[in-house]
Amino acid sequence: MSMQSSLGKPLSLSSAAWYLALYQDSVAWDIPTKEAFASAIAQHSEAFFGGLGQPQPFTSKKDPRHDQILASRQPADTVRIFTDYEVLTEALTTIPMPKGLIYVEKEEEADFVFTCRHVRNFLQLPLHQRVCQFPYEAAIIRKDLLPITVRKHLYKPDGSSPSWWQPCYDLATEFHLFAHDYQERLQHNSRTNAAQDRRHNRWIIKPAQGTRGMGHQLIFSETADDLRKAACYAPRIPMSHLPVPLNPAHSGDYGDNTGDRVVQLLVEQPLLIDHRKFDIRCYVFVRSFDPFVAYVPQLHYARLANKPYSMKELDNREVALTVSAYDEDEAIANAQERHVHTEFQSCLDAQYGDNVVDSSAMWTRTLEMLRELFGSAAAKEIGSWPNSSAYYGVDVIYDASGLTAAIEQGSAVTGFVPQPKLLEVNFLGDWHGVEVAVNDDKELYHHWVRDLLQVLVMTEQVTTDELDNHPRLHRL
Q: What pTM, to 2 d.p., does this model score?
């Protein structure tokens, strides 16, 4: 479907809606064209949001050599591992390893290749050789594909999303959907004066690939210029084609618009530690997606923003962002603070009072989220690949809106369980963070490394029954 702009150029539905959202107040568009655009965006949004939960054709993904691989496997007491990942090389040569794990220095000699490079063709790997990646895992580790995976498999027939999901859009292809959502929230908020009825409408722009808090931009003022700012990250529509120029007074604020970006709704009232915003980094060790066999290690940790949280200072990265360890400014990077999971309850008690927040129940709810994401969505999207296993770093923040409201009303609260909100899933989650978080407790770190290798690498030597009864692992 396409329409004709007032300039006589054909526009796709997505582009037309994009123009409308960005320039709805401009006199450059004639009324009939505006009305056509308005109708188009309404129809498209209704079709998109109304059809999210409908059954879709789905073809199961499977290694064509699946049966041949399984038939060729022989029981073995040992497994040879090769890695080009420097931190793992150090671990394999300095930490006591599980019995039966042998480190080799030549890739061709290995039974398992633990590589930090992306494997491009899994079907060219030797039948006997396994690898620490899955085909199609981009469905969860790319931030522009993760929303599609969630919508495809976890949205309900009425269009509602899981409670742990924050609205997120790919700015390259879904800017019009974001604009529709943004404007609906803006219009709703203009009609209500009650704070409790206000719909959150502050957003954060993030690179579709990459991590470490790099390249983030905040949208927090709820003005028309916010849409213009987000529009600069919609690279499918060249800026030179815009019929009306961006406001010159703000053109320098938009930054580099190269590379794909997503925009995600900000959690405005996050759970705090020491009056600072934090997220947690946890890990998922996936032995197999189909059949689904995955474990979450007990060890996880919080990463704190450098400065106390304030809604009035969201333009300050040290207030708004929780990851600063990789900042170019050495002083900011060195200020990054982490707390390991065993410290959570005492940290939350110091912030809110004894037992106001239940960190144990908070973790249980997080595990339920991970089970739904990996077991119900990712497993269907990735499929069965017997020569693959992998681990992922998952970043989660906690929405404390209910707690904040209760405190403001002077209500007594005990055992509050905040809602986890998924931020992103990362390829080869950072080992350095684990090592730093445990501080001087090296044994905690050594356990984490050995447990990861037992799940991913030692599939013949360590059975699922043994892992199911492992005290430091939780099976999803």
A: 0.84
